[in-house]
Design goal:
about 150 residues; mainly alpha; 4 helices
Length: about 150
């Protein structure tokens, strides 16, 4: 008989296992696309400050929290409690909602910047696309985390 090394349904991975399981494989793309939104918005003159301030807050907050979340899962710090599956779903759902609102705000600012400098306009377009890709990644992660939470 062959021994199986697969994790049981509903268990939370740790170590390099987070690079191979369905919801946790999205950590790296979330960091990349969220970081790109952060970099692109930060590389331009922030005018108007209020909506773009929200975009910066969301991108920095989600980047830092996703990185910390990934480190906690990789180090196995989540093994001490059974509430991590619910917390994983709650965080990624909140991050998806945050990035959706930031993407809409950034899209509105981008439409207003159409008559301005073309380099800033193109940078904002790229940031809007990356914000909506990050929204999709966080949403998929939240759905898969909800499914995992159901079986945990």
């Amino acid at each position: 008989m062959a021994a199986t090394t697969a994790q049981p349904m509903g268990s939370l991975p740790s170590g390099l296992g987070i690079c191979t399981t369905a919801p946790d494989i999205f950590y790296i793309p979330e960091l990349v696309f969220g970081g790109l939104v952060w970099i692109l918005v930060a590389s331009t003159h922030v005018a108007p400050p209020n909506p773009l301030g929200w975009v910066m807050f969301v991108s920095v907050f989600c980047f830092v929290m996703t990185f910390l979340w990934m480190i906690i899962f990789a180090a196995g710090g989540h093994k001490n409690s059974s509430h991590w599956a619910a917390a994983d779903f709650a965080y990624h759902g909140l991050a998806a909602l945050f990035f959706l609102s930031a993407g809409v705000d950034l899209a509105i600012v981008t439409v207003g910047a159409k008559g301005g400098e073309i380099k800033i306009y193109r940078t904002y377009i790229s940031a809007v696309v990356f914000a909506f890709v990050a929204t999709l990644l966080y949403f998929i992660h939240a759905i898969l985390s909800a499914i995992r939470w159901k079986y945990f």
